[in-house]
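Whiteboard transcription, Tuesday session. T.W. wrote the C-alpha cells on the left side:
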C-alpha cells in the first residue's frame, strides 16, 4: 500500500481524512446524477413524452448492472480495506482480482440473458405499445451491449477507492460522465439518432471510463494491492464469502429499487405517458440526495473499515460522528432547493405543460424526507464497513421494495396518482426509524470498547 494512503487512514486528522476521501466521491456521484439527467435533458429537447417515458422505463434494467458492481465493488472494497488494517496484503490483492474477474463474468452474463428475453422484460417493467420501440432501442445499447462496461466502471471505482485513491476513482467516473454529456447532443441531434443516440453515447462513455481504470491499475507500483492479474484470483480464505455477504445488501437494495421502480412505472402508466415522464423527471432529480449520501458513504467506507480492523475504535467513532453531520446538513440543504425550485427545475427538462405539472408535484412530495434517506444510507454503510451481514440486509429489504411497494398499492387505491408519490417519503421515514433502532446497540458496543 502506498505510504501516503496508509498515513491518510491511520494518522491524518479525521476531518481532513474524511474530506480527502469524501469530496471527490461526492463530486463523482453528483456528476453521475448530472449524467443521468443529461439523457433526460437532451431527450426532453425532442419534446416527446414517449421517449422520456422510455428512458425512465429502462432505468430498472440498467440499475441491475449497478447491483452487480456493488456486490463485488462494495463487498470487495470493505474486505480490501480491512485486510490493509490487518496488514494482509496478499489477501487484499487476491480479493481485488476475484472482484474484477467475477464482476466481468456476471456483467457479461446479464447482458446475454437480457438480450434473449428483452421483449418480455421490457413489457414487464412498464413498456407499452407507445413506448416499446423506444425502450428497445435504448436498452439494446445500455443493457445488452452496455452491461459489462457499466458494471466494470462502477466496480473499478470502488476497488481503487479501497486503497485511498479517491481522487483517481472519481476522475475515472467523471471522465465517462463528461464524455457522455458531450456526445449526447451530437448523437441525438447532429446524427439525428434521437433516443438511440443517447444510449450509444452512454455506452461509449462507460467504455472510455473502463479503459482509464485499466490503465491506472496497471501503472500502480508493485506494492499496490490493486491488480488485474488472473494469477491472484482465488475464492478461498473466506474471500468469496466475505465479498458476497458484505456486498449483497447493496446489491439487494439496487435490485429492490429495481422492483420498486418497475411497480412505480407500471402503476403510473395506468394514468398516462405524461405521468410516467413526470415521475421519471422527479425521481431523477431526487437522486441528488442519494448521490450525496452515497458519495459520503462510499468515500468514508475504507477509512471506517481500516480502523475497525486495526481496532482503533476511537478514530472510527470520530469518523462516524463527522460523517453523520456532513450527510444530514447536505441532505437538508438539498431538500430545501428541490422543494422550492421544483417548477423551475422540472421545466429544464421539458416544456410540455402536463408533464411539468406532474413532475413538479411529484418532486415536492418525494423530496420531503431526503435527510431520512441520508441517515439510513450512512448507517448501512457503517455496518458494511465493519463487515456486518445481518443489519445491512434488513435495511436493504426495508429501504426499497419491502415497505414502499405495499405502500404504493395502498396509497394509489386511496389517493390516486399522488399516492404513488407519497409512498416514497412514508417509506423513507419508516426505514430511518428501523436503521436507528439497529444502529444504537452497535454504537453503544463500539464506544465501550
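and on the right, the sequence the group agreed on:
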Amino acid at each position: 500500500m502506498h505510504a501516503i494512503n496508509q498515513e491518510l487512514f491511520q494518522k491524518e486528522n479525521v476531518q481532513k481524512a474524511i474530506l480527502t476521501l469524501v469530496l471527490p466521491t461526492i463530486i463523482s456521484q453528483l456528476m453521475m446524477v448530472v449524467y443521468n439527467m443529461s439523457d433526460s435533458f437532451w431527450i426532453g429537447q425532442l419534446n416527446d413524452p414517449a421517449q422520456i417515458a422510455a428512458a425512465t422505463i429502462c432505468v430498472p434494467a440498467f440499475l441491475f448492472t449497478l447491483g452487480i458492481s456493488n456486490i463485488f465493488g462494495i463487498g470487495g472494497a470493505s474486505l480490501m480495506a480491512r485486510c490493509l488494517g490487518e496488514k494482509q496484503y496478499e489477501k487484499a490483492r487476491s480479493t481485488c482480482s476475484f472482484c474484477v474477474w467475477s464482476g466481468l463474468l456476471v456483467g457479461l452474463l446479464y447482458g446475454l440473458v437480457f438480450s434473449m428475453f428483452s421483449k418480455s422484460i421490457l413489457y414487464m417493467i412498464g413498456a407499452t405499445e407507445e413506448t416499446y420501440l423506444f425502450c428497445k432501442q435504448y436498452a439494446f445499447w445500455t443493457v445488452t451491449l452496455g452491461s459489462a462496461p457499466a458494471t466494470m466502471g462502477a466496480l473499478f471505482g470502488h476497488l481503487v477507492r479501497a486503497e485511498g485513491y479517491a481522487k483517481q476513482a472519481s476522475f475515472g467516473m467523471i471522465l465517462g460522465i463528461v464524455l457522455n454529456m458531450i456526445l449526447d447532443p451530437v448523437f441525438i441531434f447532429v446524427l439525428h439518432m434521437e433516443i438511440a443516440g443517447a444510449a450509444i453515447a452512454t455506452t461509449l462513455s462507460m467504455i472510455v471510463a473502463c479503459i482509464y481504470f485499466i490503465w491506472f491499475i496497471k501503472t500502480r507500483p508493485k506494492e499496490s494491492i490493486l491488480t488485474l492479474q488472473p494469477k491472484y484470483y482465488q475464492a478461498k480464505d473466506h474471500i468469496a464469502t466475505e465479498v458476497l455477504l458484505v456486498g449483497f445488501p447493496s446489491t439487494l437494495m439496487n435490485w429492490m429499487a429495481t422492483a420498486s421502480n418497475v411497480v412505480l412505472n407500471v402503476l403510473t402508466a395506468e394514468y398516462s405517458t405524461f405521468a410516467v415522464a413526470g415521475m421519471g423527471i422527479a425521481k431523477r432529480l431526487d437522486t441528488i440526495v442519494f448521490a450525496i449520501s452515497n458519495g459520503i458513504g462510499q468515500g468514508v467506507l475504507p477509512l471506517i473499515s481500516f480502523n475497525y480492523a486495526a481496532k482503533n475504535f476511537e478514530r472510527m467513532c470520530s469518523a462516524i460522528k463527522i460523517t453523520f453531520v456532513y450527510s444530514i446538513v447536505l441532505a437538508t440543504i438539498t431538500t430545501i432547493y428541490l422543494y422550492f425550485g421544483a417548477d423551475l427545475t422540472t421545466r429544464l427538462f421539458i416544456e410540455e405543460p402536463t408533464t411539468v405539472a406532474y413532475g413538479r408535484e411529484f418532486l415536492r412530495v418525494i423530496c420531503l424526507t431526503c435527510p431520512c434517506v441520508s441517515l439510513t444510507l450512512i448507517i448501512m454503510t457503517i455496518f458494511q464497513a465493519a463487515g456486518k451481514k445481518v443489519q445491512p440486509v434488513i435495511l436493504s429489504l426495508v429501504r426499497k421494495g419491502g415497505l414502499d411497494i405495499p405502500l404504493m398499492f395502498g396509497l394509489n387505491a386511496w389517493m390516486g396518482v399522488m399516492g404513488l408519490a407519497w409512498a416514497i417519503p412514508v417509506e423513507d421515514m419508516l426505514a430511518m426509524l428501523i436503521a436507528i433502532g439497529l444502529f444504537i446497540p452497535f454504537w453503544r458496543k463500539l464506544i465501550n470498547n
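Someone added at the bottom: Residues 93 and 225 are 5 Å apart (CA to CA).
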